[in-house]
Specification:
Layout lengths: L2 H16 L7 H4 L5 H17 L4 E7 L3 H7 L5 E6 L3 E2 L4 E3 L7 E10 L10 H7 E11 L10 H6 L4 E6 L3 E2 L10 E6 L2 E7 L7 H13 L10 E3 L7 E2 L5 E6 L3 E8 L1
Parallel strand pairs: 3-7, 4-14
Antiparallel strand pairs: 1-2, 5-6, 5-11, 5-12, 6-7, 6-8, 9-10, 9-13, 13-14
Helix pairs in contact: 1-3, 5-7
The structure holds 2-oxoadipic acid and magnesium ion.
The site of magnesium ion has 9 residues, from strand 1, strand 5 and strand 6.
Length: 261
């Protein structure tokens, strides 16, 4: 894709999100769009968002569960970025009329105390550089019709990022094994999805390590103070007005929000 096409694609995605309008997949106009092109579109989209005044909280990983990777036929997860204006306070609400067709998933986030620079980073190194674990609910809202996309489409669309609710930061408990921590996602008091931290490439720290190694190819690193969303532990569940949503992460506590019309 040439520079004009990259910029135009990023603009379409930016305005689809701003005006909560669904659009055709980018690959219907650009069937040859590669993963590299898609990350370049994402970079244009990120700079548009920065220009419009929202700062970056940190990166997010997506398609980290084996189920999602198989579904998309990929061997490597994808990443995108979470912005300040996507943050919903714990116990707060989201407005359905500002979103397209949102889904929610339960995640574990890491707050880094030190920079992490790949390549060759392991989950152990990530854990050593992490100060806090945070239970989180991510609201994903693909800008594409019917939430249907190919890999380059979803990368260009900032990995469907839309909103995030963080629970309380928990100073890294030395004896908590995140891989076996039970995570449940509840809607209106009913458990809809359940998993353990191991669903995220064996351990959520492995996901952050993969991210550090992916960013290293671009001479970028994970920065101290960033919050990293490591990817859905549970499947994503469609939201509707009136839903009361919560997640419980064993050893880390709860996080919740409500859906208004
Ligand atoms: C892509 C984003 C996936 C996750 O945690 O796997 C994601 C999508 O499924 O729309 O955020
Ligand atoms: Mg996610």
């Amino acid at each position: 894709m040439n520079a004009t096409a990259l910029k135009e694609t990023a603009r379409l995605l930016y305005f689809a999100e701003a005006e909560n309008r669904e659009i055709e997949r980018m690959t219907s106009d650009y069937p040859d769009m590669t993963v590299e092109d898609a990350y370049r579109v994402q970079e244009e989209l990120i700079s548009l968002k920065l220009k419009h005044g929202s700062g970056i909280i940190g990166p997010k990983m997506g398609l980290t569960s084996r189920a999602k990777m198989q579904q998309m036929n990929v061997e490597e997860p994808i990443y995108g970025y979470i912005f300040e204006d996507m943050i919903v306070p714990n116990g707060g609400h989201i407005n359905m009329d500002k979103l397209i067709h949102p889904k929610v998933e339960a995640e574990i986030a890491f707050l880094l105390g030190e920079d992490i620079e790949g390549p060759g980073i392991t989950g152990e190194q990530v854990l050593a550089a992490t100060d806090y674990f945070i239970p989180a609910l991510e609201i994903i809202d693909s800008r594409y019709k019917n939430f249907s996309f190919t890999l380059p489409d979803v990368i260009a669309d900032n990995a469907s990022s839309s909103r995030v609710v963080f629970g309380e930061r928990i100073k890294k408990p030395e004896n908590l094994k995140l891989e076996s921590a039970e995570v449940s996602l509840m809607i209106n008091g009913v458990v809809k999805e359940q998993g353990t931290g191991a669903a995220v490439v064996g351990h959520p720290a492995n996901s952050a390590a993969m991210l550090a190694n992916m960013l290293a190819r671009k001479k970028q690193k994970l920065k101290a103070g960033s919050i990293i969303l490591t990817g859905g532990v549970t499947g994503a569940v469609m939201l509707k007005p009136g839903d009361s949503v919560s997640a419980q992460v064993e050893g880390l506590g709860d996080v919740s929000f409500a859906v208004c019309s």
